[in-house]
Amino acid sequence: MPTLTARTATGPLSPDELSDWYAVPSDRADGTWVRGSFITTLDGRATGPDGVSGSLNEGSEGDHAVFDHVRAWADVVVVGAGTVREEGYGPLPGTPMVVVTSSGELPHTALEAEPGSGEVLMVGGHGHEVSPEQVLAAVRQRGWRRIVVEGGPHLFAGWLEAGLVDELCVTVRPVLAGGDRTLLVPRGTRLGDLTGTPTHLLTWGGDILVRTRLR
Fold this sequence. Notes:
Blueprint: E1 7-10, H1 15-21, E2 33-40, H2 61-73, E3 76-80, H3 81-87, E4 97-101, E5 120-124, H4 132-141, E6 146-151, H5 153-161, E7 167-172, E8 197-204, E9 207-213
Parallel strand pairs: 1-8, 2-6, 2-7, 3-4, 3-6, 4-5
Antiparallel strand pairs: 7-9, 8-9
């Protein structure tokens, strides 16, 4: 991959500026693009004191703006059933959601559709682990190319290990969590020679929002 110089900016960004800032690179504009979308502390913790990520982005104007933009950009959001239960995910406004579950059971919140909600699909079942490749194939069969993987970290680690993540979009909050809270990349994840190239560095209200190209 050629050397890239990271763009830098300071928020807030307008909706049009966000569209430019989070545009797919021109060399992949017509193909599949898989984004991981997360928020972490400085020491890589992906959940707040209550065990969910929502408490980490409380008061973060930048993260809320980017999170909403990336979801609206997506053809589909992929999330594990455990995260749906823990975070209380319901159907997303206007964007389809794929729930990955080995049990074949959808959490009840995923079924609570409201007018304008995107469809919810299940991939998995029969008590078997579902591979990232199977999920990606099911998503692409639907014609969806702009894919956002929101986790949780266990599901995201599988996509990383399989080399299927093109880019990581992460908001880093300037706090330290410590303890045994959930890591963005769980211990034992086998990343091999995976390296990233930061392409965009945005500071917004004290937070750092980074786009890192992984492949």
